[in-house]
Amino acid sequence: MAVAPLLRRGATAVAAGRVALGLTALAWPVVPARPWVGAAADDLAVRVFGRALGARDLALGLGALAALQRPAGAPGAASAWVAAGALSDALDVAASIRSWRDLPPTGRWLVAASAGGAAVIGAAGAWAVRRAPHGAAAGGDRSSPAVTVPPDASQSP
């Protein structure tokens, strides 16, 4: 199997995970926040920001999933959605590094690894989606080849 379809599948998996994380953060902001910031996850301000980040992830994930269903080059290009998600993940890593000493030891590594991995997969997926041939179907051309059937000579026009 070629690398580009694998990267596209990776981008799709990251987008689906982003939707799940976003929904979780909207409903229960403490769940994704606690490993990242520790006991501070119980504070009102952290819960509000956690829900806001959940809304961001939900929007980015749904946008990417919808765009990945369209043909390459179509309006709402998937590469832009996937790249935006990768950028947000990279900035999550940067925010973690900025506060590294103040974050829980295990959580900081967990967040850095998961967000960093998602950023790399997202960037590679955005590149792969962007390089798809113009007009190619999402994930490769799945249309069946045109079949020409000669007219039956026994039928009159």
Explain how this protein is built:
This protein is mostly helical and 157 residues long. The protein is built from five helices and no strands. The chain is elongated. The chain starts with a helix and ends in a 27-residue tail after the last helix. The model is unreliable at 137-150 (pLDDT under 50).
Can you tell me the residue ranges where pLDDT is under 50 for at least 5 consecutive residues?
A: 137-150
* Rg on CA atoms, Å: 21 Å
Q: What's the total helix number? A: 5
Compute the separation of the termini in Å: 47 Å
Largest sheet: none
Shape: elongated
Helix-strand string: HHHHH
Helix content: 55-70%
- How many beta-strand segments? 0
Coarse structural class = mainly alpha
- How many structural domains? 1
Mean pLDDT reading: 84
Quote the beta fraction: under 5%
Entry summary:
The protein is mostly helical. It has one domain (3-130). It has helices spanning 3-27, 30-37, 44-68, 78-98, 105-130.
Kindly list the characteristics that best describe this protein:
67% helix; single chain; 157 residues; mainly alpha
Record the SSE blueprint.
Layout: H1 3-27, H2 30-37, H3 44-68, H4 78-98, H5 105-130
Helix pairs in contact: 1-3, 1-5, 2-5, 3-4, 4-5
